[in-house]
């Protein structure tokens, strides 16, 4: 049976097309990340994953800088108290428009805080930072909990981001951005004292069809 025939049958049963809520969902509005070819869908859960020094924090700072520059209020739920306001400000984030929630090394508290922020509304971006949370601890967050977060943010203008070493939300994420280091740039002669100047990193989407973005550079701290 074709979809058109099935839709006609539903319309007949429900008394007309106006009573039929079976409609295709519109494409979500996108939030620019500040990195070419990488935009984040509003009303969806996005995962940014990668090991340490992969550029995931630099990408997050770029996203928050873009959002706060448009005068959107953002929230960062910091599971491991790893957020550096100084580094974020240097990356262009307007700290006066960023709510920082510290969770004292408790991933479950971070999950509850993110849920409360989404339910409260009014945020352009809500980030749950599990980047320094040991993977075995992050995996304790059940898929049911991730599904609840996805449903909470659905049909809102909020971009929900989970920052972690590896994917935890699985199929609950609409977009997964995987970051990786491609090259380190050093100064000084090889074999003697050398100074790390910059790190080139690349971000790829593993769900939506986004090509590898042009390599962007993170300055060494």
What does this structure look like?
It is built from six helices and ten strands, in the order H-E-E-E-H-E-H-E-H-E-H-H-E-E-E-E. By secondary structure, it is an alpha/beta fold. An eight-stranded mixed sheet has the order 5-4-6-7-3-8-9-10, sandwiched between helices. It has a two-stranded antiparallel sheet with strand order 1-2. It is globular. Mean pLDDT is 82; it is low at 18-23 and 208-221.
State the main characteristics:
alpha/beta; disordered C terminus; two-stranded antiparallel ribbon
> Number of DSSP helices?
6
| Fraction of helical residues | 25-40%
Low-confidence stretches: 18-23, 208-221
What's the level 1 CATH class?
Answer: Alpha Beta
* Strand numbers in spatial order across the main sheet: 5-4-6-7-3-8-9-10
Distance between the termini: 61 Å
Strand content: 25-35%
The topology string of helices and strands comes to HEEEHEHEHEHHEEEE
Largest sheet: 8 strands, mixed
The CATH topology annotation reads as Rossmann fold
Shape: globular
Mean pLDDT: 82
Q: What is the strand tally?
A: 10
- CATH architectural type: 3-Layer(aba) Sandwich
CATH superfamily: P-loop containing nucleotide triphosphate hydrolases
Number of domains: 1
**Gyration radius over CA:** 20 Å
**Structural class, from helix and strand content?**
alpha/beta
